[in-house]
Amino acid sequence: MFKSFVTFSVIQLLLLSAGALIIYKHQPNTQLTKTPPPALTQWYKPQNKRQVWLHNMFKLRREMQAIEFYAQRQDSENINKWLTSFEQHYLKIGEMVPSWNNKIDLSLVTAIKNSNEHGSFDKIPAQLKQLTANCQSCHDDYRSVVATLYRAPNFTNITLNGDIKLTDHMNNLSRQINLIKIATTDGLPTVAQAAFTQLSHSMEQLGKICLNCHKNSPQAYPSMAMTQTLVKLEQTLQHEDQKQQGQQLGALAVQACAICHGTHRLSFDNRTLLSQESSWQKLLKH
To answer: Please, are residues 53 and 43 in contact by the beta-carbon 8 Å criterion?
Structure first.
């Protein structure tokens, strides 16, 4: 009996060691990221038009600042007013996401209430600091992931003219810019001009997609700066000035590709990565 137990224990230890070794050897592919509960999704766009979760967070932050402000003034009445409002919105966290109900610490709220009732206003800043630390622990785990999942743009299902995927269109833009560079380098002005015409048209098409979000900026893409660079690039193509062609093409690549990618592609790629389901099969594949 004892031998069987020892054998079983050794086998379990070996299995655990093997698992630990696999994870250690594949550390770059085993990043541990906490993802939020599915219940949170309904409080963000597109499922929720009012961004209820965000507004509740903004209210909590404002209410805590008000409590601190009136504690400095030793204004018990206004502390109580703002603290009552804070408690209401603090409890909403658990109402909206039930699995986070255990993260709410009402003892800190009670402590502030007691300090206010007994006129111990000097204790309130430290108690608020504890409450902030309680909030921050959750933010450390989830805030960047939540912002990426629910606030980063999602380009997955966007098409141009109803049938061209946005990713395919973006690849064509890159190929058109490269073709201009290839043609100007090898002395093929007709090819360069044709690629430029296609590029200009493609940028105009992309601009119509950008308007879905940039409603108040009709010149978001192509911007005025991009349009000016396009004009200069076309002029250099006509004069076959290779140095100027390279300068204007480089400027356009930064303005029309790199700047937008720095904001949109990075966040979209991260969103896609975080949205993927992890599995032991994927881990073992790596």
So the answer is: yes
CA–CA distance, 84 with 107 (Å, rounded to integer): 14
Element (H, E) at 165: strand 164-165
Beta bridge partners of 164: 160
Give the 3-state DSSP-derived string for 9-47, with helices as H, strands as E and coil as C. HHHHHHHHHHHHHHHHHCHHHCCCCCCCCHHHHHHCCCC
> What is residue 278's three-state secondary structure?
coil
| Residue reference for tokens 């060691």 | 17
CA dist 161 and 201 (Å) reads: 13
CA within 13 Å, CB half, 228: 6
Task: Read off the amino acid at residue 277.
Answer: E
Give which of 35, 40, 58 is closest to 94, Cα–Cα.
Answer: 40
DSSP letter assigned to residue 102: G
Question: Cβ(256)–Cβ(203) under 8 Å?
Answer: yes
pLDDT digits (tens, 9 = 90+) for 54-79: 999 999 999 999 999 999 999 999 99
| Each residue's pLDDT tens digit, 241-277 | 788 888 999 999 898 888 888 777 777 777 776 766 6
Provide the b/e sequence for 170-192 (b: ≥16 CB within 10 Å): bebbeebbebbbebbeeeeeeeb
Residues in the chain: 286
* Distance of alpha carbon 194 from alpha carbon 216, whole angstroms: 32
State if pTM tops 0.90. no
Instruction: 171-175: list long-range contacts, CB under 8 Å, 24+ apart.
Output: 172/198, 172/202, 173/199, 173/202, 173/203, 173/206, 173/256, 173/257, 174/257
Burial of 143 (0-12, 13-18, 19+ CB in 10 A): middle
